[in-house]
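Consider the following assembly input.
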Amino acid sequence: MGVGAIYLLVVGILLVISSIRDMNKTKQALKVTYKMSIMIFPVFFFIFVLMGLFQAFVSREVIAKWFGYGNGPLTVFLGELVGCVALIEPPVVFPFAGFLLEKGANYGAILGFVMTAILIGIVTMPLEFKLFGVKFSIVRNVLVLIFFFIMGLLFRVVL
Amino acid sequence: MNKMIKEALLYLVIGLLIWGMVAIFSLPKAVIIGTVIYHTFAETIEIIIAVFLLIGLIQVWISPQQLSKILGKEAGWKGLLLASIFPIFMGGSLFTLFPLMKILIEKGASFAAILAFSVACGGKIPLLPLEIKFLGIHFAILRLVLIIPVSIIIGLLGEFILKKWEPTKGKQTRNGGY
């Protein structure tokens, strides 16, 4: 049995437990899953096309040159920048990050990319400003950039 | 919801357009793209379905209301610690959690707790299967282990900066115990 099948089995058991305890809530949960699938599967497709494009047109050398180990600590920051502008849902972040890794990016750059892709969004910035104020948002985003840069440096060396 | 479906369709259409354009210029390259799409889908589909089901379950069994009740009430160290542990179990993108963060602020959570909460949202335990598959178990574990202390540090440091920056409007003062 593959890893995926094991995960499905575990979730299946959780679903059974959930429906024994509360059928309505379980139906609601399935509705959430359904909505999410409709919304995110096309994004997966888009990202996979993008990965295909990279595969077809961008050589390993280019990615290794920009995000690889040879290019110094700056690669972590570069990864962070890409993550900031990346418009992707968290579930899609990992396949793309894995692809970059396979293509020769270093673990530090990958960490920078993953964290800012999840935690910083240029596109959602106006919403953040509106809800939490400019100062709070600046402090949050700058600290995220700094601390995950440091963590990225660690990942680059350790992993 | 409708807007979301439109957005989703847009991704689909743009993806197909790009693929189609490549096919016009070079069929072999389009085949490469097709292979990548097929392989990645085939490899991840089970994990993705499992993850989405799990996120659905988490969303209904741990509702934002319950969460805000717990996190808004607890002040000081305990609140901060809870704020940096709870969100790692949540899926979804950060901006969908913005409203919850807003509620927490209104319920009197400290800046430190809110900041820690927002950073710990990056933990993404429901997505762990995907992360392990694509980035390896060492990466996933190290990231998960470090994100809690990092969120606490960002929370405390951020609150310190915000208080210095705007001392008169410092929203919370009662948790002086840090």
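Chain A has two domains: 1-57, 59-159. Ask yourself how this observation constrains the way the partners meet.
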